[in-house]
Structures are given as C-alpha cells and as structure tokens.
Design goal:
By secondary structure, this protein is an alpha/beta fold. It has 11 helices and 13 strands.
Length: 281
Amino acid sequence: MTQEAPLAIVCGGGTLPFAVADAVRKRGRRAVLIAIRGWADAEAVAGYPHHWIALGQLASVLRCMRAEGCRDIVFIGVVRRPSITQLRLDFTTLRMLPRIMRMFRGGDNHLLTGASRILEEYGLRIVGPHEVAPEILMPDGALGRRGPNEAERADIARGLALLDAMGPFDVGQAVVVADQHVLAVEAAEGTDRMLAHVAELRGHGGASRGVLVKAPKPGQDWRFDLPSIGPRTIEGAASARLAGIAVRAGGAIVAEPQRVAALADERNVFVVGVRADGTSA
C-alpha cells in the first residue's frame, strides 16, 4: 500500500494546530507545520517539522509544500483578519493583488473562499481540519456535569435561529442570548472580545443567566474557520455571568476538551453540543 503523502498545516495561534498535528501523526501520517509569524506559538512549533512564513507569502507556502512532498493543506488556528497593509506580499502574491483587493471587500467567508480558489489553481487540495482529525469536533451532549435547563434551551434555540438568519450577511458565528433577549452579536472583534463586552455591560454581581451560542454560518465552507471554543471561552463566559455555552455538535471545534470539561465544572458553566434544532443527547 502506498504511504499517504505528508499533510501541510498552516498554523495560526492557539493549541488547535498541534491537536490536529498530533491526531494526524497518530494515524501514521507525517504532519508539517507552516507557521505564521506573529501568530503561531514558536515554542510549541519547534516540536514538529515546520517552516515559518509571513501573511501574504504564497510563494513561500508553495516552496515549503514542494520541499516536503505535500499536496493536501489544512488551515487551523487563530489569525485575525489583517488589513491589506499588514500583508507581506511576495512577487507571486503581488501578481494577484487585484483579486486579493476584491476578496477583502466582503465577510470572512468571502475572503477565505477566494484564497482557497487561488491555492487550488496551484494544484493544492484544501481539506478541513475535521476531515483529518474528527476527534477535535464537539460531540452531541454535555461536556462536564450539567446541561441546560428548559429556559436555557429556549435561549439556545433563539441564538441558533438568529445565526441562521444572519448567514447571508457573512457576519459572525456567535451570539449571546439571555431570557430571550439578544445581548451581543459577534462581528470582527471575535468571541473573546464580545464576551468581555458583555461582562462590561452586565457589571458585577447577580445570578448567571444567558447562553453563548456558536454555530457555522449557513452555506459556510467547513474547510475554513469552523467556530471553536476552549478554556478561554469558559473563562470569558464565566466573567460575563453566563450560565453556559452551546455549540453545534459536529460543526464546531473544541480545544483541550478535557480541560474545558473540568473548567466548566469548576466555574459552574455548562458546555453542550446541540443539533441544528437546538436539541442534544
């Protein structure tokens, strides 16, 4: 049997790139990190075969992949949407500047889909992290000791309905709903900052109420930017005095799931994977 070619992992911030690399290696496939300067954790990257690039260096990506014999490529990890001036464009990328400018005139899904088409034109095959490491996906049901009550399930259903309605506008993947009242909608700031804003809005003291709801956008390309949660999300929800977090089962990524479950119990925040209709196991 022919051995599977190595997998290239374009690596942003956080722990998820390394969880994917470890899962791939356990399956007997070589994983090579293409780490983005300013985002990827240099100390963690050093433990894997790797190359460093700056944002906008398409030629470097292609050169690394040819050198390693890779054809398949995964994008995973935190990288906030850059301004066009933050890109370090090499000559290969500069030739595509008009296309890149058009890609920036839209939401994140529009930008990422445009970038994928460029890479595919160079013969690369982009795969989703969930395809090579399905164990990183949120399961159906609760992580930790408790799940949502009836009122919290109603908030979850409202949050999912709102995310579904916002899909055509390519806005965000998260909302905060408490007692059927929408407290926040994620935009370019990201989930952590949205939760910090909710914490500021609510102040200190009082019972924990409300739910952070995260789900992919309708029509989203699941190879890119699936919603994710991790220990920081638990801390952010607790600081915002939320009762819990609900994410789409099978359609969201969990970083460090054992730590998430333990921290959720410690901070008395439920974490649950729900189906499209808001129900769970």
